[in-house]
Design brief:
The structure is a single chain. By secondary structure, the protein is α/β, with parallel strands linked by helices. The protein is about 40% helix and about 15% strand. It is built from ten helices and ten strands. The strands form three sheets. A six-stranded parallel beta sheet has the order 2-1-3-4-5-6, sandwiched between helices. A two-stranded antiparallel sheet has the order 7-8.
């Protein structure tokens, strides 16, 4: 029986000591191998093109091209280079794990939207780092559980501050556009104008009829930001909320008193209905729509 090839990892960080430390931990495992190191985003993109790593550990704040822009370019590059045949052995995409110091990096959500498969704190335990690399390589997503709610709520609090130039009034109620987070580099434009929103639902999905939400300060009801929310069944919303709380499939099964295969089916349906690539984007969707 042919031995499995080790998971190829690229480490991207502008601090050499950080790169060396991560490399020592990763190379201590038989099933993992560091194939390269980069000190900035531009070098990371080039090494991904040359080395085709399975997983990239990507710092957010770096001189020159930062981690968010690099993540976006890696995703765009892979889409452009997608082989015609999925069976040629080169179809496995490079997946990105964003590394953050949390207190300084306020733009991790932008990296998630840019295509990252998750994020970890730089002070995470070595065992967690190794397990996360394996998890992401298998096609799943990871989020630092201790940081998820605080980080996303911080980002959403900033997003809910209306842009004065974009505010319009309707029936006495202010309907404002809320800008998406941008890259740590001031020169980068907002991630996508298509993500600008006009209203957000309340935390309780049952508080208003499907497809409607009361806007603070006004009397009119306007559509949800995400119409996909109305496609979810009541049980799927329950599962989505537990996903946003950081629970695993097994924990969701125990929490909702349902079988594990049923949870997996619900998760698959949720991701399809809300057009989410993985659980990370599902968590962002839940927070943006105030399900949690």
């Amino acid at each position: 029986m042919q031995a499995c090839e080790p998971v190829k990892v690229l480490i991207v960080d502008d601090q050499e000591l950080v790169r060396v430390g991560f490399a020592m931990v990763i190379d201590s495992q038989n099933d993992l191998q560091v194939v390269g190191q980069a000190g900035d985003g531009a070098q990371a993109v080039e090494l991904v093109r040359q080395l085709h790593p399975d997983v990239v550990l990507m710092d957010v704040r770096m001189p020159g091209m930062d981690g968010i822009e690099a993540t976006k370019r890696i995703g765009a590059m892979q889409q452009a280079e997608t082989p015609e045949s999925p069976d040629d052995g080169q179809s496995t995409p490079t997946r990105v794990i964003v590394l953050t110091t949390f207190d300084l990096d306020e733009y991790v959500m932008a990296a998630i939207h840019a295509g990252a498969s998750g994020f970890l704190l730089k002070n995470t335990e070595p065992e967690t780092l190794l397990a996360s690399i394996r998890t992401v390589h298998q096609g799943n997503a990871i989020i630092a559980p201790t940081a998820t709610r605080r980080l996303i709520r911080t980002m959403l609090a900033a997003e809910r501050t209306p842009d004065p130039q974009a505010v319009a009034t309707s029936g006495g109620g202010a309907i404002g556009k809320f800008p998406r987070p941008t890259s740590p580099s001031d020169s980068h434009a907002p991630l996508s104008a298509a993500h600008a929103v006009t209203a957000r639902p309340t935390a309780d999905p049952a508080a208003h009829p499907a497809g409607e939400v009361q806007v603070a300060g006004g009397d009119e009801e306007v559509p949800y930001i995400d119409p996909e929310l109305d496609e979810l069944t009541a049980r799927e919303r329950e599962v989505l909320i537990e996903i946003a709380h950081g629970l695993s499939n097994q924990e969701i099964a125990e929490q909702l008193f349902i079988g594990l295969p049923t949870v997996k089916t619900h998760v698959a349906h949720i991701l399809a209905k809300i057009n989410a690539r993985d659980r990370v984007q599902a968590v962002v969707f839940a927070y943006e729509n105030r399900l949690v």
